[in-house]
Amino acid sequence: MSLNEENVLDALRNVIDPDLGKDLVSLNMIEDIKINGKNVTFTVNLTTPACPLKAEIERACINAVKHLVDEEAVVTPNMSSKVTQSRTPGQGDQNLLKDVKNIIAVASGKGGVGKSTVSVNLAVALAKTGAKVGLVDTDIYGPSIPTMFDIHERPNINTQRKLIPLEKFGVKLLSMGFLVKQDEAVVWRGPMVSSAVKQFLSETEWGELDYLILDLPPGTGDIQLTIVQSVPLSGAIIVSTPQTVALDDARKGVAMFGKVNVPVLGIVENMAYFTPPDLPDRKYYIFGKHGAKNLSEKMGVPFLGEIPIEEQLREGGDSGNPIVTEHPEAPSSLAFSELANRTAQQISIRNATQDPTEKVEILYR
Ligand SMILES: Nc1ncnc2c1ncn2[C@@H]1O[C@H](COP(=O)(O)OP(=O)(O)OP(=O)(O)O)[C@@H](O)[C@H]1O
Ligand SMILES: [Mg+2]
Questions:
Q1: What is the pLDDT, as a whole number, of residue 355?
Q2: CA of 200 to the centre of ligand 1 (A)
Q3: Domain 100-363, what fold?
């Protein structure tokens, strides 16, 4: 078959994105095909830079062109990405944060299970893939982000009187802790917190973002519910330890998001096991084995991975050096990168299966 643009495009119709179940051409992922002698180049726009299937899709594209068009072609795909946008229809204030493609809440039923640790490392891991990422600490009673990033300054204000988020490790961040005095915050009630969070989100110069992570306060009460209802979320991640008490509360978390029709992107099991540094092959299941994993199966919610208990992870949180930047080879760092990939994957799958008319409108707005 002769090597021309049309035949290359036809060959690429045979490459299926395994997550989205459709071929790359119908998904509008192929752009800019160029042929020069035997050299073929084209851009493949994946739905996230954190795509775990990037290498597999690249190989499939090369094979398709070589096998179906010209065995001697030298095929060099340019693997790029355009993150798709999602909003849960009818949920939250849809006019809020129009330049932010996906807003993800990180929640838990029980306190102290590692939401902030997960939010911080998820945000930094996503940023490391090349995505544009923001992180908001919505916990006005016990903000953690200032410590976890070792940032304590107040954000500046631009000429339109919008807050300019602080930036570290490639993540734009804001914490209620930068703005609200701790002794004032304790008397705030749910509606006050949620309107402050909403104002805080809308009156900030975020620019374009692929993912905005919201670190929620612990629990599934009035405050969490009102925050969740006022923001146009794409989905939520529930963090739990494997303990029964945490799992009971995680179940309530899943139910809370169900009540307001926000998809649960998945459950993360934190503090899943401990491996002593001198016994690298051993895993001690201190808080129980696979509790959150089993819960996700029982509830039909994706399982996003397990994070081990690590001293370095805790130290990194306390000193403002997230483990994914400080020790990228640590087992928990690898687990966080996998979490980032799976989260981005869940978002891409949901965005691709939304009502197409709605998606087109959002994409080309
Ligand atoms: N996998 C882990 N290994 C070691 N320490 C951890 C791990 N996950 C969290 N921690 C530590 O446990 C403590 C609580 O974690 P974190 O603040 O992230 O929880 P949280 O759910 O956000 O708490 P809160 O409910 O108060 O908001 C922190 O000191 C953190 O460093
Ligand atoms: Mg926290």
A1: 46
A2: 25
A3: Rossmann fold (3.40.50)
